Amino acid sequence: MATEYRVERTIAAPIDRVWALLTDVAEQSRWNSTLVSIEGEIREGGEVTVVSTVNPGRTFKLTVSDVSAPNRMTWSDGMPLGLFKGERSFGLADADGVTEFTMVETYSGPLAGLITRSIPDMTDSFAEYADALKSAAESP
What is the pLDDT of residues 66-80, one digit of tens each? Predict the structure, then answer.
């Protein structure tokens, strides 16, 4: 069983500007209204510690498991033996000077059904994140 959240936005900014906002921890702290805090290095193999407004009592320690600048990045976490895995992927595509942004979070594994019962609905948080990224990227 897998659960998925997805958001897409067209951002009137160059792909390199959007990528820079996504991969700079200091910048994330400035524009990302869905964060309480973020620390770490956003680079392949790096670790990021995140506290989100949707669940401020929990700290997420994530591995940046895939980076292909400036088009995609994946953050992941999970349990041993593939019992549960959470994976957030960010995708950017250049469309004649504007950027098509996609963010998808998938929970999978044999324990996903049980664990996702305790995960809050991320729909509104995803929309807020995408709107904040769009606003930051499009501002002068």
Answer: 999 999 999 999 998
> Is the whole model's pTM more than 0.90, yes or no?
yes
Q: In 3D, which of 72, 71, 52 has the Cα closest to residue 61? A: 52
Show the CA angle centred on residue 18, arms to residues 69 and 120, nearest 5°: 95
User: Which residue in 70, 74, 97, 95 sits closest to 86, CA to CA?
Assistant: 74
Token pair in block for residue 119: 């995960």
Helices (H), the chain: 15-23, 25-31, 112-115, 123-138
pLDDT of residue 121: 85
CATH of the domain at 22: 3.30.530.20
Phi, then psi, of 93 in degrees rounded to 5? -135, 135
Q: Is the per-residue pLDDT at 126 higher than 70? A: yes
* Number of domains composing the chain: 1
* Helix, coil or strand: residue 57: coil
Task: State the helix-helix crossing angle for 123-138 and 15-23, rounded to 10 degrees.
Answer: 120
Domain span holding position 37: 3-138
Alpha carbon of residue 139 to chain centroid: 21
